[in-house]
Amino acid sequence: MTRSLLPLAALLALGSPVMAQKEAAAPSPGQIVAEAPRDAWVDIAPEDLLVMTLAPATDGSARQVVIQLMPEPFSQGWVENIRTLARAEWYDGITINRVQDNYVVQWGDPNYDNPEAEGEAKPLPEGLRTMPESDYVNSARGAESDEDAIVLWHPKPALSDSYAAIATFSEGWPIGIEIAENTKVVRSFPVHCYGMVGVGRGYSPDTGSGAELYTVIGHAPRHLDRNIALVGRILKGMEHLSSLPRGSGALGFYTAEEAGKRMPIRSVRVASDLPAAQRPAFEYLSTEGETFARYAEARANRRDPFFIHAAGGADICNIPVPVRQMAD
Amino acid sequence: MTRSLLPLAALLALGSPVMAQKEAAAPSPGQIVAEAPRDAWVDIAPEDLLVMTLAPATDGSARQVVIQLMPEPFSQGWVENIRTLARAEWYDGITINRVQDNYVVQWGDPNYDNPEAEGEAKPLPEGLRTMPESDYVNSARGAESDEDAIVLWHPKPALSDSYAAIATFSEGWPIGIEIAENTKVVRSFPVHCYGMVGVGRGYSPDTGSGAELYTVIGHAPRHLDRNIALVGRILKGMEHLSSLPRGSGALGFYTAEEAGKRMPIRSVRVASDLPAAQRPAFEYLSTEGETFARYAEARANRRDPFFIHAAGGADICNIPVPVRQMAD
């Protein structure tokens, strides 16, 4: 994480929407990404990639979903649990049980906590950790005094936000920042954008194990931020999840009559455990560099020929971090 | 429209996120809506409802989509064109040609402006109007002077926003408000939330006729606000559109090889033209009343038992206007 000492006043000034003069023939966001220098891209470690294989489509074509797990300092207890579950092959044979329009797709053991279950819940492997609710945020980055400065990331860009003091990006992820009652404590947390992956849980104080996961398939449900652990995002194959038939039960769960709609998950593997030939490789556009700042500015001020009015701002979930699959 | 004289300073103070003290056993947003008094609900005129019948599902079940057309003062030229097209039965037999993940579903004549078209474009009916780009916004609501006040709706609630000076609701619709170079002119415009319906168009100065329509199936693409005409929203049957297979062509259009995925639209009718027995009836929760203000506040400060942290704010597209179908 890039950090710097930054006076609070300067931070809040940065919190205004990105503004820029309209320039003739300025590049579009897509062009900026296409022309990014090689060193603006960052490899994603194979240990941070999950390969989820769904049952094939009715025409026999394969359906694969690739998930990037979240790096430090966020949600590491749950991320480690997810690797443990994948390595125990616990996810193999579970199903997608919930598809709620404009909200989430959720997968897990169909017999877990389900009044319509037909069988016993699947036993969890050993070695899973239980995390406290305080781990939903990353906190305690304090300054020596609140007279002169607070310790913070130096956000570039910093966006105004309806849910956090500011929203920004760090190491490829969309992040909210909250300044606590005094300026000595700053809390940061990943935010619920489209395609983010989180950990299903019961009522507080349950925080979930990672056996039950969901992804966002609609408008960013940012009210879930700080209420639940976010552990990653979908890099590839999102359309296999977002286009599933919606469930007609409460909260979009499939009812017992709709059991046939529950899509089976054949396997989930950590990419680093796969043979090299089957290992997908992805990279993201560094959110710390000049190219990303230009891309974010161009997302907030669209100059593509289609546009007649530049918004002059954008919300964090409307600036998706560019990701690409590397050729074999 | 409820309007009032409101000093600019007061307006900007209202622009802060809704804040409220956490109260024990406070009702959830859903409870507030369920307990709304009868007179908090507003009938939608049958003239403002479109009934779109899609081809039946593979199991033979009917697929119907109900769209509410936008009332004055927004986009009325296009709305009138859409009624003309529906009454000419022009939409009957067109198809859904584009499904772009996290963006839009778009329907129209598959042979219109399509390099892969197999036939001639379908001739449009007579009587369609062409609107100027200035009709994307509703403007020129001026005050006598900018010393004391500006003429504005009295927004309740008023939300901070990344795209407009403020965001609010008016007569059941999510609205952005822009204050021009001087405070004498205020412009308002409908915003691109999930399920909103807009008019496809070519490059400027084309503004589209209403023959080509789309709906939002992902995170709110607010950069489209003020760049395109919004004409309505989906009230029912959204899941028939959002769960369609994504197109693999540019911008999510179905390629010639995927022509079989183009869902046929059997018919589109103005509800007031249907026999009374086939006419659906809907109502929305008045956005001007006290119940809606409480609902919006509760969306921004979730106190349902699941939540451990209230956000203290919400973006306009995360406060969907409650709509319900009336019993026959």
Keywords, please?
alpha+beta, Cyclophilin, globular, 16 strands, three-stranded antiparallel β-sheet, homodimer, disordered N terminus, 12% helix, 328 residues
Per-chain topology:
Two copies of one chain form a homodimer.
Chain A: E1 3-6, H1 8-14, H2 29-34, E2 41-43, E3 49-54, E4 63-69, H3 76-87, E5 95-99, E6 104-108, E7 150-153, E8 166-170, E9 173-179, E10 186-190, E11 196-199, E12 213-216, E13 230-236, H4 238-242, E14 265-270, E15 282-285, H5 290-300, E16 323-325
Antiparallel strand pairs in A: 1-7, 2-15, 3-4, 3-14, 4-13, 5-6, 6-12, 8-9, 9-10, 11-12, 11-13, 15-16
Description:
Two copies of one chain form a homodimer. The first copy, chain A, has helices at residues 8-14, 29-34, 76-87, 238-242, 290-300, and strands spanning 3-6, 41-43, 49-54, 63-69, 95-99, 104-108, 150-153, 166-170, 173-179, 186-190, 196-199, 213-216, 230-236, 265-270, 282-285, 323-325. Chain A is 12% helix and 24% strand. The first copy, chain A, has an eight-stranded antiparallel beta sheet with strand order 5-6-12-11-13-4-3-14. Chain A has a three-stranded antiparallel beta sheet with strand order 2-15-16, with no helix packed on it. A three-stranded antiparallel beta sheet of chain A has the order 8-9-10, with no helix packed on it. Chain A has five helices and 16 strands. Chain A folds into two domains: 1-42 and 141-184 and 284-319, no CATH class; 45-138 and 191-281, Cyclophilin (Beta Barrel), CATH 2.40.100. With 328 residues, chain A is of the alpha+beta class.
